[in-house]
């Protein structure tokens, strides 16, 4: 376009381009958090039996595995849905080794404030309601267990350098008082419930029934619902008769949001994401331009920080993990024959093991799996930094293999006599101008390239080596 005012040609302003290397990780993170804040059932809500108006309806919720924020969200949504649907009862099936304190307290509070009778049930055979699970079991209006199941072992623990040990007396007293308060309000044996916390008591189904911790032993759901039918429970000071005979069972599906929270709120997943995120950012800064390590690292780091916000974290553990990563990088940059790597492995293992600060989480079965995960991460990290990173850095130190610079050090034959004034050599089938720094080299002699000045190579007489 010609501009008459300025008398010069003006080009239109270039259109602004989208930097996809920046946009892609932002879009991925946005998508993850959008999904985390919507409620889409990914399970199937199934029913059994007739659903006519005279048939009682029982909502069935399942608590399985480690109790996390996603578990709490599932239970709270299920309780609210059952109330809105005017269900006759809610059945919460338990098979859990324990879990996060805050999530457990949310669940027990919601159960105790439910306007619909809640039945807590440890099932199937071989299932457990340990640690935090025992709090949920006694919080039900009616508590039941299947033969061959177990409950108890709810003593709070702390994790330190010396390993697992009972929590301080103040913490133990608080949780003992709290489970006793829950048991009192639901008509259970508060004294025995306190022993779960103070003495790490463990009861099977028969012992739990005899001690008054549960109300019923039932082999399966149909038997349980027959035995529960007609019982009276107290809700908000009112006696309500439970109707469950020939009930239709509504199984609540797991929502996408609660599933994501369950995954991210798992300390094992959070630790893995944290380490991968730190490695990704560091490798991205070491080799800028690809944007792939930075993108993966940023996404994993954000997800790990979000996940760690869902459970109590020992900041000393986070600091040790960061120190471990720094030591791994230092080992790669300045090899110390394994000294820094050893220190990094020790820091990584200790830091990761003490990272979750959850007194009701660490039952032996869960802790064993967590420890194996951490040891696997430490071994894989050590191996990676010993071999992969070392190989990358060694490759960086090698001289260039392309362009004129790779000619330095090459040995070939002189095509003509070479003096300070000039001459010719042949490398890779190409003729190059060459000169020496004072010496004279006859045609056919072996020469070595020592430098380059523009299009001229500086050579010297070579030792007796092959061209």
CATH T-level topology of the largest domain: 2-enoyl-CoA Hydratase, Chain A, domain 1
**Proportion of residues in β-strands:** 15-25%
User: Can you identify the CATH superfamily of the largest domain?
Assistant: 2-enoyl-CoA Hydratase, Chain A, domain 1
* The level-1 CATH class of the largest domain: Alpha Beta
**How many strands in all?**
21
Largest sheet, strands/sense/barrel: 7 strands, mixed
Instruction: Name the helicity range.
Output: 40-55%
Our count of helices gives: 14
Which geometry do the CA atoms define? elongated
N-end to C-end Cα span: 60 Å
Judged by helices, strands and strand pairing, the structural class is alpha/beta
Low-confidence stretches: 1-21, 38-52
The gyration radius over C-alpha positions equals: 35 Å
The CATH architecture of the largest domain comes to Alpha-Beta Complex
> What's the pLDDT, averaged over the residues?
79
Please give the domain count: 3
């Amino acid at each position: 376009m010609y501009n008459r005012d300025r008398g010069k040609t003006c080009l239109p302003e270039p259109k602004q381009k989208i930097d996809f290397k920046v946009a892609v990780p932002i879009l991925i993170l946005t998508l993850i958090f959008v999904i985390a804040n919507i409620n889409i059932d990914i399970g199937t809500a199934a029913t059994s039996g007739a659903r006519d108006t005279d048939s009682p309806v029982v909502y069935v919720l399942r608590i399985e595995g480690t109790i996390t924020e996603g578990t709490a969200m599932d239970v709270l949504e299920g309780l609210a849905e059952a109330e809105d649907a005017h269900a006759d009862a809610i059945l919460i099936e338990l098979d859990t080794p324990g879990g996060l304190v805050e999530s457990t307290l949310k669940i027990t509070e919601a159960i105790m404030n439910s306007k619909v009778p809640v039945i807590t049930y440890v099932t199937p055979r071989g299932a457990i309601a340990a640690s935090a699970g025992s709090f949920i079991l006694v919080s039900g209006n009616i508590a039941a267990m299947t033969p061959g199941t177990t409950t108890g072992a709810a003593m709070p623990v702390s994790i330190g350098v010396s390993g697992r040990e009972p929590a301080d007396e103040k913490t133990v007293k608080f949780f003992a008082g709290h489970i006793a308060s829950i048991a009192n309000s639901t008509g259970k044996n508060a004294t025995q419930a306190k022993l779960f916390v103070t003495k790490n008591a463990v009861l099977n189904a028969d012992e739990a029934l005899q001690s008054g911790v549960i109300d019923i032993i039932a082999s399966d759901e149909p038997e349980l619902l027959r035995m529960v039918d007609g019982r009276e429970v107290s809700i908000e000071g009112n006696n309500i008769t439970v109707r469950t005979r020939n009930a239709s069972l509504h199984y609540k599906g797991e929502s996408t949001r609660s599933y994501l929270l369950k995954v991210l709120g798992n300390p094992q997943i959070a630790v893995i994401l944290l380490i991968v995120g730190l490695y990704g950012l560091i490798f991205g800064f070491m080799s800028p331009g690809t944007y792939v390590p930075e993108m993966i690292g940023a996404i994993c780091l954000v997800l790990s920080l979000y996940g760690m916000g869902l459970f109590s974290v020992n900041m000393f553990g986070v600091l040790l993990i960061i120190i471990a990563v720094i030591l791994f990088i230092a080992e790669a940059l300045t090899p110390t024959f394994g000294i820094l790597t050893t220190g990094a492995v020790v820091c990584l293992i200790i830091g990761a093991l003490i990272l979750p600060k959850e007194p009701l989480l660490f039952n032996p079965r869960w802790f064993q799996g967590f420890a194996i995960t951490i040891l696997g991460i430490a071994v894989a990290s050590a191996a990676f930094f010993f071999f992969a990173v070392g190989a990358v850095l060694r490759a960086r130190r090698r001289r260039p293999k392309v362009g004129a610079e790779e000619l330095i050090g090459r040995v070939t034959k002189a095509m003509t006599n070479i003096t300070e004034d000039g001459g010719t050599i042949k490398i890779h089938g190409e003729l190059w101008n060459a000169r020496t720094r004072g010496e004279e080299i006859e045609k056919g002699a072996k020469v070595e390239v020592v430098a380059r000045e523009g299009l001229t190579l500086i050579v010297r007489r070579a030792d007796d080596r092959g061209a």
